[in-house]
Design brief:
CATH topology of the largest domain: Rossmann fold
Number of strands: 13
CATH class of the largest domain: Alpha Beta
CATH architecture of the largest domain: 3-Layer(aba) Sandwich
Number of domains: 2
CATH superfamily of the largest domain: Alpha/Beta hydrolase fold, catalytic domain
Distance between the termini: 25 Å
Length: 301
């Protein structure tokens, strides 16, 4: 496939122990390797605009489990935060025998941070896009958090995914809930939707479009990190870290900046006048900032 006839995307597939991840690769095979981790309910296509502006880097963007075209977790499993780290360690062991650059947006940045903290030997540098720190909760909320999680799992059994007549309609629905234009929403919808037939209505055999993301992704988490746990992880990150925050992004990230910025060992931080998906809407600006950071590391970028 191609993007505006300027970047070639090569499909990739990686079998892990329990499931298979799908994604794409761009750039030269001998270029500096960057693993791109998308945000919650997004998919690998969120990095296409950035790939267009970083043609000399080798980017591997994957759909996290339950997202995009990757497999869902087994029916007896849920989407616990630290399981993402296990997935990414398995993936890195498959794709590289050298440390890589991690690029994470939103939730993907939190996964990348936990990975860099716990497996520093796998990480060359860390780029966080409107992401810093973690989602935390006081220990006193543990009982309430567990109750909400169990109840949300029960409610999920009665939920059904919305259906749309075509991909464009799904993209329009996504745009209505986001901070970007229709073309950007369409990038996500093209990879994040599947055809859904309606066997219960034989008089209308036409297929409808629905989102491929696992409904379990919307369940309330059974646990949250405490501030002390988040601090321990952040202070354990050894890799040079670059955070690109959005001035009109998620309020949580601005709050996290005040709480966690001083606890990173090696952190550079900039703000751009943009929204939460700035790597899609302001990809040129984000790419320029990234290249300045990577050049400062004296890598082959």
């Amino acid at each position: 496939m191609s993007y505006s006839n300027t970047i070639e995307l090569h499909p990739v597939s990686y079998p892990l122990r329990q499931l298979t991840l799908q994604g794409w690769r761009s750039g030269p095979a001998d270029g500096p390797l960057c693993l791109c981790l998308h945000g919650w309910l997004d998919n690998a296509n969120s990095f296409i605009p950035l790939a267009k502006n970083l043609p000399h880097l080798q980017l591997i963007a994957i759909d996290l489990p339950g997202h995009g075209q990757s497999e869902h977790r087994s029916l007896d499993a849920h989407y616990h935060f630290f399981d993402w780290v296990d997935d990414m360690v398995q993936l890195l062991q498959l794709i590289s025998n050298q440390p890589v650059h991690l690029i994470g947006h939103s939730m993907g940045g939190m996964i990348a941070t936990a990975l860099a903290a716990s497996f520093p030997e796998l990480v060359n540098s860390l780029v966080l896009i409107d992401s810093i720190g973690f989602v935390t909760a006081p220990e006193s909320n543990t009982t309430e958090q567990l109750r909400k999680a169990v109840l949300s799992r029960q409610k999920r059994l009665d939920k059904r995914k919305p259906q749309y007549p075509d991909v464009a309609s799904a993209a329009a629905a996504r745009q209505a809930q986001s901070d970007f234009d229709f073309a950007t929403a369409l990038l996500l919808a093209e990879r994040g939707t599947v055809q859904h037939s309606n066997p219960g209505n034989p008089s209308n055999p036409s297929e409808k479009v629905t989102w491929s993301a696992d409904l379990r992704l919307r369940e309330v988490s059974a646990y949250r990190l405490s501030d002390a746990q988040a601090l321990q992880l952040i202070s354990s990150v050894q890799a040079p870290t670059f955070a690109i925050l959005a001035k009109q992004g998620i309020e949580l990230m601005q709050q996290n900046r005040q709480r966690w910025q001083s606890h990173y060992r090696y952190l550079q931080l900039v703000e751009l006048d943009a929204g939460h998906h700035l790597h899609m809407t302001h990809s040129n600006d984000v790419a320029l900032q990234m290249m300045t950071f990577l050049a400062s590391l004296k890598t082959k970028c």
